[in-house]
Amino acid sequence: ARRPGRTLAAPPAVLAPVEKTISAIGAITAPTVEHVDTILRRLAATATAGGTRMVDLAAVELTDRDVLLHLATPAHLPGPWTGSADGYHWQIPAGTAPDQIGPPGDDQPAPYPLLATIGTGEAGQVWLLNLEGLQVTIDGDPLYAADLARYLVAEIACNPWSTGSVVDCVGVGTELAGLNPDRVRVHDTRWDATDDPIGEALLGAVRTVDRCAD
Fold this sequence. Notes:
34% helix; single chain; globular; alpha+beta
């Protein structure tokens, strides 16, 4: 919406680390993000077609050669996946054609909407943690902790598999309100009856349970 001749406004200083990350690795990781999204959706489509449950995913590890799924509970995946003896770790080559993983599943929702990057390993592998169902505490230096919290919110706001997710930020990440208003909602640390994020979350959970019962 920038008018001709006007410069872009600089982001707030507190968002500088996020902007640097997006500028430095955003274009490089975009194909990887799309590939992971495709793999997981096709895995979900396979489970849907076979009437089986999705695996209990804990984390995803991306290397130069492979995509590895680390599970919270053991499971069995069909080929081309190869797994460890205990059933907790499954991998496929990064270049595996999507059609070998499962059907397209064009209407298949993303199975893990709160999958977010948490860092890289010593060998350069990228780690994504499945935040859904977890109680995650970010501790340590307050400045770094706030930066990581903002980064996780920014990931959920932008990841293609997080469509439909809503993040309520209470006292942190207020700078991200305009990043994706459909997914990010910010609140003051003091709220009233007109802005009650906990009450809204509970109401949404009750409605979901009622829909499942129906």
